[in-house]
Design goal:
Layout lengths: L8 H17 L6 H18 L9 H15 L2 H9 L20 H12 L3 H12 L4 H8 L3 H19 L5 H4 L1
Helix pairs in contact: 1-2, 2-3, 3-7, 5-8, 6-8, 7-8
């Protein structure tokens, strides 16, 4: 029996990882549309070079997304626009990291503000660990850092997030 197109490994991988990869790409690109483009481009590059990829190879997709996003940022047109407008927000154009329902919007906005307050190296590790669900070893390989550096960045990021979020009281508890 021939496998159907829905059984193809790349389709299963895309369905599972695309939302996580888009969130990861948002660390560098100015809009959600750019993040989606980066993920699609990175996904195609990855599967062209590794058509027999197995789940243990999927962390390499994060490296591919990172490289593709950074390549996009290096483009002359985007660089010229950013340099011409000193008030431009490099990380995002007013769009949130999260696609949240109305009842979760307040929490998502709070977490997003907290994420913006931590250094980019810590934010990157936190995104890979929490939303990317990668191990410290996979993150270290993806970023080309030591596992101790990755673990430290993760710890510092969590401490910073706790400090920012400690005074938060959900609206539903205030009523």
């Amino acid at each position: 029996m021939t496998p159907t197109p829905t059984d193809e490994p790349w389709r299963l991988c895309y369905r599972e990882l695309a939302p996580k990869l888009v969130l990861f790409a948002r660390q560098w690109v100015p809009s959600l549309a750019d993040a989606e483009d980066v993920v699609q481009t990175a996904f195609v590059k990855f599967w062209r070079h590794q058509p027999e990829a197995q789940p243990e190879h999927y962390p390499l997709l994060y490296s591919t997304v990172r490289t593709t996003a950074l390549d996009l940022l290096r483009g002359d047109g985007r660089r010229a626009r950013r340099e011409a407008d000193p008030d431009a927000d490099v990380l995002r154009d007013g769009q949130p990291f999260f696609d949240s329902a109305v009842e979760l919007r307040e929490t998502a906005e709070l977490v997003e503000r907290a994420m913006q307050q931590i250094p980019s190296e810590q934010r990157e590790v936190l995104a890979l660990r929490i939303w990317g669900e990668l191990t410290f070893a996979e993150i270290a390989e993806t970023l080309g850092e030591s596992i101790n550096t990755v673990a430290s960045r993760h710890r510092y990021a969590l401490e910073a997030m706790r400090r920012v979020l400690k005074n938060y009281e959900p609206a539903r508890l205030r009523n």
